[in-house]
Write a structure and sequence with these properties.
about 130 residues
């Protein structure tokens, strides 16, 4: 599985030299996270966020990752930004992200671990 992810990382990085798209950079961050290269994942998610500042998903992924790794100060900082971010449109997707972030906070307060379940694996549609 990691070999497949590493190969897809190389292909995504090569494609970015021709066309740097928001979606490709977001996906590159996801692939880095799947092989536990958290710093590279965050760098790509931050770049995606800078490309289209109105998008919520890069912040959401970084908040999830910080919670997952017990980096609560960083998670809290980004959570404040996420919750204050202006919405251009009402979106169920953003509602789900907001609900997840609040659930992670509750789990943290009850000293329950954040699941290693990734918001972009499985049937979540994120």
């Amino acid at each position: 599985m990691n070999g497949d992810n590493r190969a897809s990382i190389e292909k995504l990085r090569a494609s970015l030299s021709f066309h740097a798209s928001y979606k490709a950079i977001l996906e590159l961050g996801r692939r880095y996270e799947l092989i536990d290269e958290t710093e590279s994942a965050h760098e790509n998610w931050e770049l995606a966020s800078l490309m289209i500042p109105s998008r919520f998903e890069p912040l959401y992924l970084r908040i999830w990752n910080y919670h997952r790794h017990g980096l609560y100060r960083q998670a809290d900082s980004l959570t404040a930004i996420f919750l204050q971010k202006a919405r251009k449109v009402e979106s169920i997707r953003i509602d789900v992200m907001t609900r997840d972030i609040r659930r992670w906070e509750q789990l943290r307060m009850s000293n329950s671990p954040i699941s290693p379940f990734s918001p972009f694996e499985g049937g979540r549609g994120m």
